[in-house]
Structures are given as C-alpha cells and as structure tokens.
TrEMBL record, chains A, B:
Belongs to the ATP-dependent AMP-binding enzyme family. MenE subfamily. Its EC number is 6.2.1.26. This is 2-succinylbenzoate--CoA ligase. InterPro entries: AMP-bd_C, AMP-bd_C_sf, AMP-binding_CS, AMP-dep_synth/lig_dom, ANL_N_sf, ATP-dep_AMP-bd_enzyme, MenE. It catalyses: 2-succinylbenzoate + ATP + CoA = 2-succinylbenzoyl-CoA + AMP + diphosphate. Residues 21-348 form the AMP-dependent synthetase/ligase domain. It holds the Pfam family AMP-binding. GO terms for molecular function: ATP binding; o-succinylbenzoate-CoA ligase activity. It comes from the Bacteria. The keyword Nucleotide-binding applies. Residues 398-471 form the AMP-binding enzyme C-terminal domain. GO terms for biological process: menaquinone biosynthetic process. Keywords: ATP-binding, Ligase, Menaquinone biosynthesis, Nucleotide-binding.
Length: 483, 483
C-alpha cells in the first residue's frame, strides 16, 4: 500500500490561481496565492539558513499575523513540524510543551520577544530576525505525503497532563474536504479567521484556503465591529465562531439583517445556549452548529444548510468521510465516538494515552450526547469536566494540580459555572492547611497558569465532595457554592 | 500506515440527504438517495442469493439504465468488483474480457439477453431475473476501504491486447474530489450522463453524485434534443460530452443562448477542433476542455471557469491532487506524464504492462503535448496511433490483428482519418495473398470486432510503409491513400 502523495498544496494553488487572494487583512492589504507561495518559500530558505530542516519540530508563538501563515507554510516546504503554541500560556506551561514536543527552534513576532526570551530554548528568532537572514539555496518540498506529520497542538484532556496532538497533512486534508462536502465550494467564498491560528479551529481555515483556492480574511483578534465590516462591506461568506462571539455579533446586529452573501457562521467550541440559537434563527442568521476537538482536526460533526433551521440545538451529522456513534447502556445518552481520516493517529510520544482514546479507528471523545431518530447528534455534556470559556478549553484537573502545589493548600476542586460573557468560567474550592488570602492564591496561580484559566472565585471548604472510591465529584462542587 | 476508511458512500449520502434526488430520468422519474440505497442494498442481497460474494468479479453488460446504477452500488455493498463491459463489442471481444477478468457472474438488461446468452459464461442473470430473487439475509459493507478494488474496465492501449484497468474506490474518490476542487460544489448542481456508464467518463458522474449529494440526470443514450430539454427545462448544470456531441449541441443551439444555470460542458475524449471551441466561446457556451484516460479514472487535467475562455484549445492544468509533466528532449513537445491518487495502480494480472507505463507514480500516457509558459497543457497528438471516434477509443493494432487473421490477408495497417460526424474514423490498408472482395473482408470483421471499429475504407496495397527496423509507420498510411 502506497502513501498518498499530492503536490504541495500551496505551490499547487499558486499554480492554479496565482492572482487570487490568499489572505486579506482588515486594512485592505491582500496577498495572492503566488505571493504567499513566494514569501513562504523564501521564508523556508531563510529558516534553513538558521539550521531548520526536515523532521525538526519548530514552535510558533504568535497572534494571527500574515507572517504566522507564511511561517506555517514555510515549515511545510522544509518538511519540518509546526508546534503551535497558545500565546496566553504562562512560561511554565509553554516550557512544558516545548520540552515535551522536542522543539528545537522557536519563532515569534517582535512584540512577543520578552515572552520568548524568558523561555529557555536556545534557538529562537523573531519574524524580523528571520526576514533579515539570507535565503539558503536548498531544494524545497514539491509534494506532500498525507501520512507525514505537519502540526502538533496541545490539549490537556481529562488527566491534566497536556498532550501533543499530532496532525498529519492527511488529517488536515480530509478535514478540509469533509467541510467542503458539507458546505459546498462557491467561487465567491471568503472565510473569516478571528479564532487563533494556534488552535485547530483557526488553522483549519488556512488549510481550506490553500485547498479550495479561497481567501482567508484574517483578524488579529476577534472584534465584533471588524467582523461586521468584513461581512457587510468586504464580502466575507463564512465565519468561524465560538458562542461568545456569536452572542456579541447577534447583539451588535440588532434588528438589521446580514447580506445574503453571508452563508454560514460555523459555530464550534462546545454546545451553544438554545435561546441564542433560536434568536439567531429568528434573525435569519445562518448558524451551523458543529462538534469537534483538537483530536479531530476541527469540526467532525456539523449541521448543513438544509438542516440548520430544522435542527436547532443539534451539532448535525458526521461529515461525509466521518462517522459518529453514541455508546450507551440504555440506547439514549452515552459517550460520543467518532471515526474518520481527519482523526489524529495519536499523541506525540504518549502511546498509552493514545490507546486509551483510540480503538479500531474510533475516538472516544469523553463527551456525552445522543442521536435523534434521524441520526442528528445532540451534545448534552462536555467531555468529563471540561470548562469552555470564550472558546478556550480549560481542564479543571490542571488548575487543581497547580493549586495543590501551594504549601497552604491541602486539596482543591475546580468546576465551571455559567457566565454571561464567556459562556463558562472556572471556580475553585480549596481545603487549606493554614489560612491564606484570596489574593495570595491568585498571585500564585498567575505565575503558573494562563490568565483565562484563573478561577473567578475561590471558596475555602472543610472537605471536597468525594464518591465511594474517594474520587472527587466535581459536579457537586457548584452545589457547595450554593449552600 | 493505515488504509483510509470512510463510511459506505451511498449509505452516507442517504443518511445526509435522504430526500434529495440521486437519479433523474428524462420522463420525470426520480429516485432519492434513500431509495437508491434501499434498492441497491436489496439488490445486493438478491445477488448474494445467486452466490455473489466478496471478491467476486461480476460483469455488467448494459446501456445507461437506472438498474445499472443500482447493480453497480449493489456490488460495492457486497465488496464484489464490477467489470464494466462495452455493449458494442462482439462476442469474441467480450469473451476475451470475461475470461481475462476472471468474471464469474454476468448481469444484463432483458433486451441484451440474446447477446448475454451467446457468451459462454455459466452464471448470468437479467435485471428482471435478479429482481425476482429473494434477498438473502447477509451483512452488507458499512465502510469503504479506499485501497480496495471497485471496478475493472478494458482499454487496449498500443499493444492491441485489451487490458483491464483496476480502479480502487480511492481512485474514484480522488477523481471526484479533484473535479470538485476544480468546478466547485454548488447546491443546485445536476450532472447529465449521456456518456456510457461502462466508460469511466460516464461512471465517474455516478461517483460524484453519491459523494457530492448531487442528482445524475441519466440518458440511455445521447440525443441532442433530450440534452437541450434537460439543460433548458430540467435545470441540468453540468454535462459531460465528447466532441461529436458538442458539435451537434452547438449546431442545435443555433443563435440561441443557454440559460445561466448551465455552468459547464466538460469536454473529454481527445483534442477538440479549434473552430468548434471558438464557436462555442462566441456563443457563450461554457466548454471546459479536459484530458484523461481510463487509467486516470476520467479527467486528470481540466480547464477551470477562469481560464476556459482565455485558453481555448488547452486541456488546462492538472486537477488539485494531480500533477502533469511533459518529457521532451528539446523542452517543447513531448510525451505527457501524469501522477496523482486517481491514477490506477495497474492492469489486472498484467504486471509487465503496468510496469511499462507506471514508474514512481508517474503514468506515461503515450500522448504528446506541451505546457505553455503559464503551465497549461496542450495535447497535440493522441497516444501513439489511437483513433477516437465519437468518443470511443479505437486501437489500430487491434483491427490489424483481426485483419491479419484472415487467410487471404498477408498484413494490414490501420489509421484514422478525420470525419465530419465522428471526429475520426478508421481506414485499413491490406496486403493480400489472394484476391478478396471488400464485402467479404467486412463480413469477416463484423464477426470479430465491434461495429464502431469497422474501417470505413479498405485499400489493397502492394506494401505497407515501414521504417528501417521494419516497423509499420502508420502515420504514412494516409499518404498512400492520397496517392
């Protein structure tokens, strides 16, 4: 059996559609596929001059910038693997990922120089420093083998240990094709990326762009006015959003209507509140709910245009190349399993963790849901105790583990509570050894975990709710708060 | 490395779009994807009752009928391989293919019963006979492994020995995806199939249909009025044609215009005359020329919407997952090579013939052409001496071989001459041992080769043009005729 080989996707698109827009920025700047290819190839040769080569793991710590896209494609021309770092993580969190992923080079924009310098990784360079380098004369990849690894992104899962999800080119390819078969491919499509490119929800837009020959409308960060401007004046047809963004957009829209050119808000990042979906439907806002995780290279179950209005609240059906099933003892709610060529083949250097979630191609998502009588998926509960706050995944176990590291804290429990702005926010419960001030705990936490993970409340309790096996029952934590 | 697995494509589409049209007939009849799935699954179980099972090679001898589509999908549910036979072949030609492909069962429509009965293949049944059978209770395929073989179709190539091209599910899948990335996928698409489904140009429309969730508008055979009716009144958006069809359609169109819903005539089957392409352009007829062969599972190089009018006469660029190159000593015209996951991995039981044309994934097409400075392919000459007549491939060597079998004929040479109606027709040159009448030769030929292959002229000559190595120089034959 042969590994499937295709031409390098950016080179190919530059050949087919040299003068079409690949990237559009809010200031009106645009880059064609030919320009993007040329810049990426030159960039690859400059990186090669720093010593980057095939098989190297190169981390990118960056906000959504054109240079980040160039850097990602450049790494593919070198057959190096891009490790995409969440810029909101603390130094400790980043160092864990850099070490775990065997990263040997770090790339970042000028404004993150301080953060990058604080990381003990010897070989690193800012975008500007790379640009100043001379391109090395080397041969670049002309083809892509779908089974080769392309990116690594970290996700914590339920164990509290972040694990590097390996995405092959094939995972990204099949994800893009699955999405195309669901949404169609229209000549005028333009996809807005306001989600971070270091998450698969953002990165997948870039991949679709090079495969479909479609411009990405890139925002450095989400801003409701900028998104509206892009939809109303700049012809954006598809926007990837998480609940908190959709909420703000619908609010901002008021009683107005979007132009008919807007054909899809692709909604990811956890179940959305039904009232919001109903309001969107009332306003003719085309919301396509979806379900996916880093391990599935973005959406793997998505509503389509025909069903978006009929099945409000459902995440839809598995994309064409994928399958979904729910395993339950009573034929109703159970764990959601998915299968398909977009699903990761595993975590980097974590065969045990991989084997735990992947069996015969089926991925145990940890999320609970059910299929209705027409086979539409409804997600009813997040993977175990996952908190999704403004589209970011927060794993209680991770915060608990840091809290328990403080000498004054004996044990800790973390759970999520609903929040008007962020969907959910974490709150913590601690059993202490000695008295300790809230501020002191928060300062300690700030040193170790990213800001978005900081608990909004910390409650001192006499004991944590535990079951017969002495396992923490996080679902009961919020009841303690109410008492 | 794992074999890529996807859900069974028809079951999947029936799940996603149960009530959408899968097949539409000229009489207004339609079949939804759910109905097509149910019929195909029942058909599979009936075939199983005849003993058909996984790995069996089952031949289908049929015109374009709904039952043929059902039979093809039924075989996929059984993991059997469909051997698709050209109904225009003679008994001898068919027997060669049936034996070579190890066919153990033959399916045909009632009206071809006589032809089928004349073939010495023990297990055979008409559509009606299969329908009357009781469905056997067996488990059907739920998934498709892309590396599994799905169809075998015969092509003669230059050696005169017909060879069975094996298409895996993956070859068909990638072909459909490559086409989608070129033409886009629009909600209202409806693809007209007037080309025979036993050719890959016709069959590929069925595969796109189940993958895109798009109706096939099926014609039993080409008829310019029916095609116009389908485009003008029935919303057909894409039509696969060969030159002779396009010619008739453009003639029939006169000074009228097609509705804007028609977005593509996908033109295959050999280079088209430039005057026709220019006239089509003048009339705003959207012709997308393409290049492909059975070995590439249909088109592999195709013009796109942007370039169709700019590059009249070109076959375009390789589809997204494919590559094309021209090998020549002087950087101009040379042999065309193609590569991509839609390219067959070889001929059935013919490793030598396979190795002759396939090296490192590159397929030597035998056709001559060049790439212009923007990388567009222009095909200047057919594979060796191939004659393309009304979209059917005719290999001179095959006719020569039959002619030489006649006791009165010492040697024979065949070439093509241009023909107003068919594009090209074969003519023959024979060196005789004893005198023989034209009619006698023709009667002899009719017994052995399909009608469309019959030479339109037979010239008796003293000697055939041969080169220094005594090899027949077919290109000089037409000059003898003029003398």
């Amino acid at each position: 059996m042969q590994d499937t080989t295709i031409p390098h996707w950016l080179s190919k698109q530059a050949d087919i559609s040299p003068h079409c827009s690949a990237i559009e920025l809010v200031n009106g700047q645009r880059l064609t596929f030919e320009e993007l290819k040329n810049q990426s190839q030159t960039y690859a040769k400059k990186l090669a001059d720093w010593g980057v080569k095939e098989g190297f793991h190169v981390a990118i710590l960056s906000t959504n910038k054109q240079e980040m896209i160039v850097a990602i494609h450049a790494l593919s021309y070198l057959k190096a693997v891009a490790v995409l770092l969440n810029i909101r993580l603390t130094k400790d969190e980043l160092m864990y990922q850099l070490n775990d992923a065997d990263v040997c080079f770090l790339i970042y924009p000028e404004e993150l120089k301080d953060k990058a310098s604080s990381l003990s990784i010897k070989h690193q360079a800012s975008y500007t420093e790379i640009h100043q380098r001379h391109p090395k004369k080397i041969a670049l990849a002309k083809e892509i083998r779908l089974n080769d690894p392309f990116t690594i992104m970290y996700t914590s899962g339920t164990t509290g240990f972040p694990k590097g999800v390996i995405h092959t080119y094939g995972n990204h390819w099949w994800s893009a094709i699955g999405s195309a078969l669901n949404l169609g491919i229209h000549d005028q499509d333009k996809w807005l990326a306001a989600l971070p490119l270091f998450h698969v929800s953002g990165l997948s837009i870039l991949i679709r762009s090079v495969i479909y020959g479609m411009p990405v409308y890139l925002l450095e960060k989400f801003n409701k006015k900028a998104v509206h401007q892009a939809i109303i004046n700049d012809g954006v047809t598809i926007v990837s959003v998480v609940t908190v963004m959709l909420q703000q957009l619908v609010e901002e829209l008021g009683t107005n209507q979007y132009p008919t050119t807007l054909r899809c808000f692709l909604l990811g990042g956890g179940p959305a509140p039904l009232p919001l979906l109903k309001q969107a439907k009332k306003l003719n806002v085309p919301v396509f709910q979806s379900f996916g995780m880093t391990e599935t290279a973005s959406q793997i179950v998505t509503l389509n245009a025909n069903d978006a209005l009929k099945k409000v609240g459902s995440a839809g059906k598995a994309l064409f190349p994928a399958q979904v099933k729910v395993e339950s003892s009573d034929q109703t709610i159970g764990e959601i399993y998915v299968k398909g060529p977009m699903v990761t083949s595993g975590y980097y250097k974590k065969p045990e963790a991989t084997n735990k979630i992947l069996k015969d191609g089926w991925l145990a998502t940890g999320d609970l849901g059910y299929l209705d009588d027409e086979g539409f998926l409804y997600v009813v509960d997040r993977r175990n105790d996952l908190i999704i706050s403004g589209g970011e995944n927060i794993y209680p176990s991770e915060i608990e583990s840091v809290l328990s590291g403080h000498p004054a804290i004996k044990e800790a429990g973390v759970t999520g509570i609903s929040d008007d702005k962020w969907g959910e926010v974490p709150i913590a419960f601690v059993v202490t050894n000695t008295q300790i001030a809230f501020d002191e705990v928060m300062n300690y936490l700030r040193e170790h975990i990213a800001n978005y993970k900081l608990p909004k409340e910390i409650h001192e309790v006499a004991a944590l709710p535990r079951n017969a096996s002495n396992k923490l029952v996080r679902s009961q934590l919020r009841h303690i708060r109410k008492e």
